[in-house]
Amino acid sequence: MSSPKFATLRYTALRIGLFVACFAVVWALAYLHVIPLAVGAANTVWMLLLAIVISAPLSFVLLRKQRDAMSEQIVAKVDRQRERLAASAGQEDGLL
Q: Where are the transmembrane segments (predicted)?
């Protein structure tokens, strides 16, 4: 497993990759006329929306570990910022 330092980057890259894969599948199904095509120029928008609708629940299920690692990374950063803020406030109060 790679470093937890890059958990957010890894999750984002996997999420984008999953969306691109879903878009490719939707595009292939539309090209093969398995799913209906939209009217005119709306075809691309239709396929993008369908790929979003498909990739969202898939990422919720398939990327659970990466999302949890990202959450832990963010919580740790927020906790460090709170500690720094509290230390700064304590130093300012000591000067008054």
A: 12-32, 44-63
